[in-house]
Amino acid sequence: MELWPELRNRARSLREHGVPVLFLCAPEFASVYEECADEVVVCSDVFSEDAVVEALSPYRGTIDRFSIINDKIWPVQLGASRRLGIDFPGFEGQLNCRIKPRLREVLAETLPLHTEVFSSSDLTRENVAAAVERLGVPFVIKPIWGTASAFVEIVDDPERAYDELAETFESLRAGHPHGPFDDGTRRWDPRNEVLLESFIGSGRELSFEAFMQGGDLVPLLIQEKLLWAQEEGFRLETANVCPTPFVSAEEEERICDILQDALRKLGVDDTFVHIEFKWDGEKASIIEVNPRIGGGSVAKTLIAWLDIDVRDMGRKLQLGEALPRKYERTKEGFLLGVFVNAVESGIFKEYEGLDWVHAQPEFDFEQNYLEAGQRVPRRGESKATREGWMYTYDAFYHCTDVERIDYLHEETRKRVLLKFEE
Questions:
Q1: Is the distance from CB of 370 to CB of 392 less than 8 angstroms?
Q2: Among 5, 97, 129, 210, whose CB has the most other CB atoms within 10 angstroms?
Q3: For residue 398, what are the CA distances in angstroms to 108, 226, 414?
């Protein structure tokens, strides 16, 4: 459903194990998938549930399941699978994770955090003032389902609350990729509803990389969001470490028990999970649960540190084949990721300063998000275009000394610059 090389690799893996593959795609991508699929079906609009149902109706009763779900296409896949009678393992768990208010409702007893859904139709200064009174400050404005970091704002000043909400609704109506979705109990409108929640202030900011199978949570690695920059009402992560050297083995075991209980309540199973949470040494305050493997460098880190084949693991999770319950680390130390963001806007030409990055003894690999000729939006242009200047270049260093973290972070962000066409 998108032009992404990993999709073709997964398709080949499934076919090698005797699983036939049908690709649904836009007309311009049909030729891309022909060599790795048993059949290719062209769809007029892969982001439209009605169009997907129409395209797949001739195959009703013959399709076993959708093989992938991601943050952009999940409303279409869930809705279409329900209408076509396609099996979707973990359907309820997917809904509870993807739609943030549902996650908060399910975990209300274990996560005593004030949250509420706020509608654009209730946007008055009086209603906003009442919400601020209930939430306190700071509080967070979030889309009701995830769109990476787009549209998320932290409100510190009560006087700014009304304007921030008004601007967020305007941006959502202009830039959110999806319309309403009916989960079977109520209709959610991501362009006219947001989630407001009290800010979780204390604790280390961690993400848990694991998988659920047979109702058991199997831990892989814990990543820690370590360093930040503040961009007005938005916190921007600039460095993380994985596996974190700042959480003990005893804490990891306790965290696993807490998160397993939460995932069982949510109904999540037979999938990788990427869980964002804060940890104060005793309590895990869950921020979000993603029923997928983590993005960015997570897959490469898992492969390097645990010597595993994540693609094969994903296939086995989809097909219900049993996976081992314990994975030993094959390396010492940790991976430090440093993230460079665009300061200016324009037509990207090249990176400056990469020679210094490559010369560092800890340098492991890098991730480039931009190609020459690509436009980088300016900061503040739109909440919907935030990813365009956030994700430009990542450098990853294999470290064994925590004393090197600050130096590598500061020098990388200072030296690596984006050069633009004149």
A1: yes
A2: 97
A3: 39, 16, 20
Please name every residue paired with 29 in a beta bridge, in sequence order, or none if there are none: none
Confidence bin at 68 (pLDDT 50/70/90):
low
SS3 of 150-164: CCCEEECCHHHHHHH
pTM above 0.85, yes or no: yes
Element spanning 175, H or E: helix 161-175
CA distance 307 to 300: 10
CB 113 within 8 A of CB 105: no
Strand-by-strand arrangement of the 216-231 sheet: 284-290, 271-279, 204-213, 216-231, 234-242, 334-340, 393-399, 363-368
**CA dist., res. 223 & res. 320, Å (int):** 27
254: tokens are: 């306790």
Domain regions of the chain by residue span: 5-88, 114-198
> What is the rounded distance in angstroms from the CA atom of residue 299 to the CA atom of residue 309?
9
How many CB atoms lie under 10 A from the CB of residue 23?
Answer: 22
**DSSP β-ladder status, 153-155 and 393-399:** unpaired
Domain 114-198 has CATH 3.30.1490.20: yes
